[in-house]
């Protein structure tokens, strides 16, 4: 019963469960428990302990859910009042909590969410609390403080350090920074900033901390919707107005106006006086989205992602809790903000793999959104042109409502899709753009339209091989090949990020001048395009080429405005961008994702190809997508070309059902890692032998086997896979199972419920 197959029944609240009461008094919710000074309280801290700690309520007493500072040994640590004292500690010796922090207490809804998310993902509670308290300077009082922003003046003397500070300020537009934050981001000392203040190039202001965000006006500037958009919007509005939990899959072809439709749900939520959250899979998409919110509601929303300053993050966290932020646009971690009254969560591009957090707490934001909404009595909208199979199955089963938008907005039509059979093409070495694709690009150049060449491979070449001895250059600490990045003039390991210069001689045979790149990455493709279309302006969009999220957003805006003729991109460009002048999408290697044994290989390829093709022809001029492939008869390629989505999903669902894999069965991945290869195998074997707790629920364990990437950062990795029936109580069995073995100190064990990646 993975949440991605059946979130609603797993996570309790059936569709229609009532939400919590929204009234708030004195920072605590209605009916909240109060602990007078000196009463024993149980505190959840962010420290890696497996239990609650007892303290006495501090001076002035505290509400349940209140953030506290408590003494722990010689230190003061962050904690939250979780309930009355557990009594597990001698009452006479209880220490008092130091103080209550100036942050709104965590509400019952949020505490329940953290607890259930912890149970589901088998994450210790302290780690969940860390996710929920990621506001810089959480406990500092809301006093005025000094902030720094870009001024008008130019300093009489420019130094390298001064330039760095100004560059950071410019990059973040009008945003305010704190002194140390600005100096740190610029890599300079604070005196440089002060010098710029004297020169008038930087403004120093007293600003009240954590101001509420400007009000959004739900009826500011609604767009006239088409009939089918209106019908969808009406249904979403009704669902939001019901103020009860339910989930709707909003499935609309690329360019159909899904965003316009769910913005109506946001409008209804604002009109209800409740808060809305829109999750986007990629920070680079927030720029365009925030602009659309401003156009529709007359002001900008709060943002929560790695591209906002610490000052803004703090403000968002506190204003979300106080009700001073009506709409949050953010990355998956925005789900763990302390909303005062959450009425709507939109998960845009819900199929996107980046919703799965693959490090630290392993959770799928799409599934956690459903969990959170079911507790808060909120509506969930899952929007996608190519939904995940999980969501499609849930809609088929009637667990989710479903709205379909089948046509593009306005005169735009869906792109024509065609395969370019590479078996018949004579491709010279070092060339990846076939003749027919090149001719199509020429046609666009002649008409002043844009082309996109899509290749899901970063860097210049995936492999560097020695032509004298056949040696391939690998990473020193990972079992992975180093990828040449020519812009950086270095080789890079995509596992650990380590780089090294490209050697002149082969490290194995020491012959010089024989190292050669093999295969294409986007940088090499750009080289080919520049040579082939010398007059075209070529832009490369790949996540590693931009120093910051802002720089990437700026480049995307420039491309949308027509600043490039040929765009070369990785999967970054497939996600929801609007490039009105783009009429041709050329997929360099449509077969790339079909290799490998990943359970979701077919689904992912289907989604990615349909999404990337969907970038073409979004305005008046019709679009074409050309897919270079060696296997045009492959069922997945055929489904992509015909666009028979329902047929594809039905076939894919049937296959997974037969194999008993998600969403029809449950899986958990276990990754053991250690610098000591023997230790990981020993522990893996011990787990495999002692599978009693799993067998009792009818689950099977496979492995241990070396992970496909068997070593990362010097740690050897071994995987086990557990498969169970949908209804099996998997988490409890897993917890019991792994508790049987003793872990050597240096061995890490990570449990991934509903794994998306099998590396
Ligand atoms: N009713 C409308 N009135 C005016 N413009 C609209 C309307 N509906 C859609 N559009 C415009 O059509 C374009 C595509 O809409 P939108 O971005 O909402 O589509 P989408 O379904 O979210 O696309 P994708 O899945 O490809 O990201 C946008 O530029 C949007 O402003
Ligand atoms: Zn490495």
From TrEMBL:
Keywords: ATP-binding, DNA replication, DNA-binding, Helicase, Hydrolase, Isomerase, Metal-binding, Nucleotide-binding, Primosome, Zinc. This is Replication restart protein PriA. One of its GO terms (biological process) is DNA recombination. Initiates the restart of stalled replication forks, which reloads the replicative helicase on sites other than the origin of replication. Recognizes and binds to abandoned replication forks and remodels them to uncover a helicase loading site. Promotes assembly of the primosome at these replication forks. HAMAP family: PriA. The gene is priA. Its cofactor is Zn(2+). Zn(2+) 1 binds at residues 466, 469, 506, 509. The keyword ATP-binding applies. Its EC number is 5.6.2.4. Residues 239-405 form the Helicase ATP-binding domain. One of its GO terms (molecular function) is DNA binding. It catalyses: Couples ATP hydrolysis with the unwinding of duplex DNA by translocating in the 3'-5' direction; ATP + H2O = ADP + phosphate + H(+). Gene3D superfamilies: P-loop containing nucleotide triphosphate hydrolases, PriA, 3(prime) DNA-binding domain. Binds 2 zinc ions per subunit. One of its GO terms (cellular component) is primosome complex. CDD domains: DEXHc_priA (cd17929). Component of the replication restart primosome. Zn(2+) 2 binds at residues 475, 478, 493, 496. The keyword Zinc applies. Residues 1-25 are annotated as: Disordered. Belongs to the helicase family. PriA subfamily.
């Amino acid at each position: 019963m993975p949440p991605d197959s059946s979130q609603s029944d797993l996570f309790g609240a059936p569709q229609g469960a009532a939400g919590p009461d929204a009234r708030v008094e004195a920072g605590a919710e209605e009916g909240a428990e109060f602990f007078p000074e000196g009463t024993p309280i149980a505190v959840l801290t962010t420290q890696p302990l497996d239990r609650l700690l007892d303290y006495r309520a501090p001076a002035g007493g505290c509400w349940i859910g209140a953030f506290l500072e408590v003494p722990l040994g010689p230190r003061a640590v962050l904690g939250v009042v979780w309930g009355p004292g557990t009594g597990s500690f001698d009452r006479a010796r209880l220490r008092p909590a130091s103080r209550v922090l100036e942050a709104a207490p965590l509400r019952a809804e949020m505490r329940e969410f953290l607890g259930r998310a912890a149970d589901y993902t088998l994450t210790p509670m302290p780690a969940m609390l860390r996710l929920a308290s990621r506001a810089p300077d959480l406990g500092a009082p809301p006093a005025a403080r000094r902030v720094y922003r870009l001024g008008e003046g130019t300093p009489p003397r420019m130094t390298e350090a001064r330039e760095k500070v100004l560059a950071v300020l410019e990059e973040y537009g009008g945003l305010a920074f704190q002194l140390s934050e600005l100096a740190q981001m610029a890599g300079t000392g604070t005196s440089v900033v002060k010098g710029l203040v004297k020169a008038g190039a930087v403004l120093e202001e007293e600003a009240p901390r954590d101001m509420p965000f400007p009000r959004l006006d739900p009826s500011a500037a609604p767009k006239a919707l088409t009939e089918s958009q209106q019908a969808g919007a009406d249904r979403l509005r009704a669902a939001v107005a019901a103020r009860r939990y339910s989930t709707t899959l909003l499935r609309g072809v690329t360019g159909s106006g899904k965003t316009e439709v769910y913005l109506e749900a946001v409008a209804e939520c604002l009109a209800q006086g409740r808060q809305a959250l829109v999750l986007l899979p990629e920070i680079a998409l927030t720029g365009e989205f925030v602009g659309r919110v401003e156009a529709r509601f007359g002001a900008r929303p709060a943002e929560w992602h790695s591209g906002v300053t610490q000052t803004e993050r703090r403000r968002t966290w506190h204003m979300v809790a106080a009700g001073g932020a009506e709409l949050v646009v953010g990355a998956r971690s925005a789900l763990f903000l302390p909303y005062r009254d959450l009425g709507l969560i939109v998960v845009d591009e819900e199929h996107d793999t980046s919703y799965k957090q693959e490090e630290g707490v392993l959770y799928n934001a799409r599934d956690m959104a459903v969990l959170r909404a079911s507790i808060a009595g909120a509506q969930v909208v899952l929007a996608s042109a190519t939904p995940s199979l999980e969501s499609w199955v849930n809609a088929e089963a009637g667990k989710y409502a479903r709205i379909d938008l089948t046509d593009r907005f306005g005169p735009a039509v869906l792109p024509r899709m065609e395969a370019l059979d590479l078996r018949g093409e004579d491709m010279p070495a070092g060339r990846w753009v076939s003749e027919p694709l090149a001719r199509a690009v020429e046609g666009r150049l002649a008409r002043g339209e844009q082309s996109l060449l899509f290749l899901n491979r970063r860097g210049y070449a995936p492999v560097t091989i020695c032509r004298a001895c056949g040696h391939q250059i690998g990473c020193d600490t990972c079992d992975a090949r180093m990828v040449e990045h020519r812009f950086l003039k270095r080789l890079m390991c995509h596992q650990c990020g380590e780089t090294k210069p490209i050697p002149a001689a082969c490290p194995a045979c020491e012959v010089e001048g024989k190292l050669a790149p093999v295969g294409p990455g986007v940088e090499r493709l750009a080289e080919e395009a520049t040579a082939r279309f010398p007059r075209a302006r070529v832009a490369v969009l790949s996540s590693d080429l931009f120093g910051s999220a802002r720089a990437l957003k700026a480049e995307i805006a420039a491309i949308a405005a027509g600043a490039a003729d040929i765009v070369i991109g990785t999967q970054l460009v497939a996600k929801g961008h609007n490039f009105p002048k783009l009429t041709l999408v050329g997929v360099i290697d449509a077969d790339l994702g079909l290799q490998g044994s990943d359970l979701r290989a077919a689904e992912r390829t289907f989604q990615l190809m349909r999404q990337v093709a969907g970038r073409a022809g979004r305005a008046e001029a019709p679009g074409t997508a050309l897919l270079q492939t060696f296997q045009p008869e492959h069922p997945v390629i055929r489904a992509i070309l015909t666009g028979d989505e329902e047929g594809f999903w039905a076939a894919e669902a049937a296959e997974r059902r037969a194999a008993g894999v998600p969403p029809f069965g449950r899986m958990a991945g276990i990754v053991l890692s250690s610098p000591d290869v023997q230790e990981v195998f020993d522990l893996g074997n011990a787990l495999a032998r002692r599978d009693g707790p799993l067998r009792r629920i009818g689950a099977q364990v496979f492995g241990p086997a070396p992970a496909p990437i068997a070593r990362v950062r010097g740690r050897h990795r071994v995987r086990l896979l557990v498969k169970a029936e949908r209804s099996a109580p998997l988490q409890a069995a897993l917890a019991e199972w792994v508790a049987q073995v003793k872990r050597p100190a240096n061995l890490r064990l990570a449990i991934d419920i509903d794994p998306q990646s099998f590396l």
